Amino acid sequence: MASSRPDAGKGGTTHVMFICHRCNQPLKLDSSFNELDKAQYLELSAPLVVNQVVGEEETIDLIPASISKPHEDLPSCNEEDVKVVSARSAGESSNHDFTLLGESENGATEYLSRKLEINTYLFDVMSGQSEVDHPLCEECTDTLLDQLDSQLKITEDECKDYKEFLEKLDREHDDIDEGALDRELLQLTAEETALQRQLEDLEAENAELQTQLEIEKQHSKQLDDNEDNYYKEYNEYKRQLLEYEDSQRSVDNQLRYAQTQLDKLKKTNVFNATFHIWHSGHFGTINNFRLGRLPSVPVEWNEINAAWGQTVLLLNALVRKMNLTLQRYRLVPYGSHSYIEALSDKSKELPLYGSGGFRFFWDSKFDQAMVAFLDCLQQFKEEVEKGDSGFCLPYKMDKGRIEDTSSAQSYSIKSVNLI
User: What is the DSSP string of 138-170?
Assistant: First the structure.
């Protein structure tokens, strides 16, 4: 590798030097490089070749480039018009490229340039003919030679071992029984043929097994698909079953609730729940409406009318429950204006409501209506006693009078008693 640096002491002068490719130390070339003639240059640049074997040894000689390539133009330090081109510059830029700077005479510059080109070309040739890059310093060269000597020694030892082994094989070859070897070869050939036939049978069997394996794989894939479909259907049926079970539990709960309500309703008396009959002081009550009045306790007629309406509704419901057809009268529940209709004269209505006053007491229709109500109640009592002999009302009723059997006293139901 060539490098250049300007000299600070001399204007326009440039010093060019080569450095070692291993240690990168600057080199001082031998003076013989400046005195090369064309014959020496050709000898140095000649390639290495291997001669043919002579006896048992091989020799390595140098063939001059002028003999191998007589027409090749090579640079020479004695020719003024010699121009050397680096061998590495054709493929890649060389590390030996340099430029001369400064102002000097043309003749000296051209001479120096040719000399550097020749040296550079020689190093390129040497580097191209070996695996070692040149130039090298003396110490690196000694180290390289020691390494090459070691490699040479190892190679020579290997060559010696090969020669001894070859001589051993030659001696053993003389003692070999060729007939035995032929018989062994025939035996091995027969074994090889048998093994080949066995291999062919195994290959055919393997091919058949591969075919069966493919069939089984397809069958297995089909089974996997069927299994997936089965699990999908199973999951769907399972989901439906869970939904049905939830629905069944819901229906069971509803049924139990309905049964509970039914049992409760069976134990419940509709008439007792609808018509609460009790007493308040001297008055009997139905749904908290007092039925009657006393001079000391003047009950409002609106309350009495409402009580009569509830009473008529209760008796009418009981009659219908018993499928009883009343004689002579028909109950007409109409709230606070309920009345009784005489069957002999349907235009005749007997009101079970009043408004009070002296005029009211002179009107006998209210009294007739209460007498007709007792008549209807007596018919209901008699009908019930036909089916249940144990049924008995606490009072007897006869033509508008109520008789207390315990005291043998009778009371009229007419409103004249309400004055």
Answer: HHHHHHHHHHHHHHHHHHHHHHHHHHHHHHHHH
